[in-house]
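re: that chain from earlier
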Amino acid sequence: MAVHVQQPVRRHTVTAGARRPADHVWAVARIALGWIFLWAFLDKTFGWGLATPADKAWIAGGSPTTGFLKGAGENALGGFFAGLAGQAWVDWLFMAGLLGIGGALVLGVGLRVAAVTGGLLLVLMWAAALPLATNPFLDDHLIYAVVLAGLALADAGTTFGLGGLPVVRRTPWLR
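^ sequence. v structure.
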């Protein structure tokens, strides 16, 4: 006859200010993804020749949305997205989004707002590319959108970021 001894359930708690290895991974992912958004903003603004040639830079009179959206013309929703290409309000909204989302992620503040707006931007870019060339449904845009949600839910701005500042902690939209 075996005797079973029940042990009390022990919960692992993290004290305030303590960091887990996962917190550091989320922080690095936050900064890396933020840099992707910031780099897209910088390259499209100044045309540093990697994705955007200098003569097509925003400051040289180029449109940061024309190439991608005109290229979507053959896709399922291409007519809608191609119609948005090159419109000044679309360019300004897109560039403000890249700068704002990238800045929020790198600094670690406004992650909730960045997750919602970045997720929306990424889903729209995914929709413009439908049907996808290499996968029937999933591509990097959707993966980045999921990562943005994870960053906001994990409160990733507090590690290696300004998310732990008192003003950020007590102001929900800055978290």
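The two ends are 56 Å apart (CA to CA).
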